[in-house]
Amino acid sequence: MPCLRHRGSFADARSWKQTRQEFVARVCLEWSLPSPTQRQSAFSHRLLDKIPSTYQCIPQRVHHSHDLQWGSQHHRLSMIVDCQGLANVMAGHALLTEPACRPLFVRLARRLAILIRAGWLPRADVGSYIEWRPRRFNVVADYLCNAAMDQQQSSQFVDEQQLSRAVSSQSHLQLFSDGGLRPGDCAATGWILYSVSRCSEEWLWAVLAWKTQFLEDACIKSSFQVESMALDDAGQFLSRVLT
């Protein structure tokens, strides 16, 4: 076993950074783990985007370590938000402190119940359907929101053939939603839905649908409210096409 020296034994942060790569490589070799470079190359994926030309500048989705961690059964569903309060409320880890949002959350809970009865499972056996991730992992939905506010119009795209194929093949589904709020009653919601499937050792993501909704004069009071509205709109789509 290589000598596992504690970081505090190094003279300074610079010496730790210079030695870290070698240290990690030695540990991986000793424990027969994939090296960092191997893990990067093993993170093989192909994004089969079908985004209309009006959204040519849409960014690539940013991959998270959980993206390759799915339960063994089919029909797994993961809904990603970058509002931690929203994820905590939906998971039952926090109380709803905005009474005006109560009808919206009742709808969200009912739509989630519909998906559960239809046989859809969360990404992991122990976990929630709605997961929080930092904003840097939600760049596509964030972009869609900002595009809707910039253009002051709503838009929608659905690949009916790809969607039907994904559902019938029992692929996993991963949805990202986001809400945006700017001064002057300018707000928008956006979400994008991917199918996630595994072919041999390669994971494939395919865009099935996305939607933006420009909310003009909607009297949105908080970012939390518009984030919740985005998830509600996505839930409405899912409960319609997956049941």
Task: Describe the structure using short key phrases.
single chain; 243 residues; alpha/beta; 2 domains; 8-stranded mixed sheet; 8 strands; disordered N terminus
What does the model show?
By secondary structure, the protein is α/β, with parallel strands linked by helices. The protein contains seven helices and eight strands, in the order ααββααββαβαβββα.
Overall pLDDT: 82
Order of helices and strands: HHEEHHEEHEHEEEH
- Provide the structure class: alpha/beta
| Radius of gyration (Å) | 21 Å
Uncertain runs are 1-10, 34-50
Helix count equals: 7
Number of structurally distinct domains: 2
Share in β-strands: 15-25%
Helix content: 25-40%
Shape from CA axes? globular
Major sheet summary line: 8 strands, mixed
**Number of E-state strands:** 8
Q: Termini, distance in Å? A: 53 Å
